[in-house]
Amino acid sequence: MQIQSNFSLRNFNTFGLESTASFFAEVSSVEELTEILLDPVWQQKPKFILGGGSNVLFTQNVNALVIHPVIKGIEKIKEDEDHMWLKAGAGEGWHEFVMHCVSHNFGGVENLSLIPGTVGAAPMQNIGAYGVEIKDVVESVEAVSIESGIKRIFSKEECEFGYRESVFKKALKNQYVVTGVTFVLDKKPVLNIGYGDVQKTLLEMNVTSPTIQDVSQAVIAIRRSKLPDPAQIGNAGSFFKNPEIPSEQYNSLKNIFPEMPGYVVSQTMVKVPAGWLIEQAGWKGYRQGAIGVHQKQALVLVNYGGGNGNEIRALAGTIQDSVEAKYGIRLSPEVNFI
User: What positions constitute the catalytic site (predicted)?
Assistant: First the structure.
């Protein structure tokens, strides 16, 4: 295991932003991770865990030991007539794991195709798309305490999953490194194709009796049509969360803005698409120098090349103010500012 100093993180974040880590180490096993966490040289130094870098905005250099887990492997834990339990290493690419499941006809994650990032980051964020969240398929999360180096297994309940939230972003923030995730997948898949875009795309594909492979391909097609490829234009996908507001507030806004979409999430709350709010506030396609708002999807802030994190952060703040002034809704970033 090699520890490098003054290490550029430009190729380790999907915005393609320049940031320098004081120290950087890749760990390819739980043993390597424990070794560095308990090493007296590093034990008292600040640490930052960096996965695929698809949900971070670097606004400064990282004065810490950056640990980049590349723990690999997908193994069968057990199976029964209806389900398959798979454990994936935190360093596995998320989309690659989804493709593994789809190719073996293990259902449950096909709606989450083409989401960037790693398996280890997925439960921290409780990633979700097209009616499915990772909490729907997780059985447990294996993680190592940064302070003690002790491994712990978190049950699904202990992960305290919420909308783009988990215990690892709240009570246990910066306290654990996820090393592996165990999933429960369906051997007799039940498709989730309730979203209009998915249904429409399947029809365009002339698919009348879809399989999980068809659903995966439809989701991939949708994402490619709406979202820029980070390899071409720096971005972190959806920059803001879709806000959930009280039903009374939504009904009042609906009287003023009849075209405002909303999705009931409970008896008292309605989810409003953040992308719609941003677009209606006039930001879609906006560009200022090297940064801007994507032309096809207002929810995505982009770095066209040469931008910096503070410029993107400032643009995000201006968009938040603009949407709040028009609709009385304060958007919350989904991306983590570093």
Answer: 164, 238 (proton donor), 334
